[in-house]
Amino acid sequence: MGRVEGKVALITGGASGLGAADARKLASEGAKVVITDIQEELGQQTAADIPGSLFLAHDVRDEAQWHDVLAQTISHFGKLDVLVNNAGLVRFANVEDCTLEEFRLQMQVMVEGCFLGCKSALPAMTRTGGGSIINVASVAALKGIGVIPAYSAAKAGIIAMTRSIAVHCQEQGYKIRVNAVAPGAHDTPMTRRALGELPQGDAGLEQIQAMGQGAPEDVANLVLFLASEESRQITGTHIVIDNGETMR
Ligand SMILES: NC(=O)c1ccc[n+]([C@@H]2O[C@H](COP(=O)([O-])OP(=O)(O)OC[C@H]3O[C@@H](n4cnc5c(N)ncnc54)[C@H](O)[C@@H]3O)[C@@H](O)[C@H]2O)c1
Known about the structure:
Elements: E1 8-12, H1 17-28, E2 32-37, H2 40-48, E3 54-57, H3 63-77, E4 82-85, H4 100-127, E5 131-136, H5 149-172, E6 176-183, H6 189-197, H7 203-211, H8 216-227, E7 238-241
Parallel strand pairs: 1-2, 1-4, 2-3, 4-5, 5-6, 6-7
Helix pairs in contact: 1-8, 3-4, 4-5
Bound molecules: nicotinamide-adenine-dinucleotide (NAD).
The site of nicotinamide-adenine-dinucleotide has 28 residues, from helix 1 and helix 6.
């Protein structure tokens, strides 16, 4: 028996990086996985390597697409047990250089995308007796990083929204747990792009150079735990996975 045997898990932004690792890990422990992403070709490739998985083109900013993705998930696999709101992006620009357009894009993908995901999943999960929602935040929500004001605000918003939705679920008697994970640097296309863009001497870059990065599988192990019944007493919190980056 796998640790999430028989569960149906939907992972947004699952074509690449952490989301793809989550999909592989959950599938290896017995889940049926639905991968969604705006990157269609890469998403199809990722799903092709995971037997029995389904890829759906999906922009998490679009409420109508959420309805469609939920409907296709239910029609294909019959239910939804686990939602990983993982889709995200980062733009490096301090408060003086960041345009309102760039700020809004990051809030839309991460805060609105996470909101729409939770809102869409609740009715499906309550129908089948509960579930687990895992929202992907970041250590950027917990410390000051000068070049990512919008990303930091979005990730802090995700942590606060996670608590609010977890409280609501408990008050309503829904057996839906809602948690966030807050990773530090892990080796993905996003961090590889970041390492190429950040100027020498940037504090975040120096930190990564000094401490190294985790592997996507490290975050996937935490997501697996939160998706499984092993974490059944955990809701409304965030778990930091950062090799001690924020411990002092
Ligand atoms: N890698 C890290 O070190 C790290 C650290 C902290 C948090 N995170 C978070 O983890 C998540 C995954 O990041 P990653 O490092 O794997 O990056 P990544 O760029 O490899 O993956 C992000 C995925 O999200 C998708 N995406 C972007 N906008 C989307 C949209 N509007 N709708 C649907 N999908 C969309 C992208 O196409 C991509 O496949 C993000 O939320 C990121 O902020 C990553």
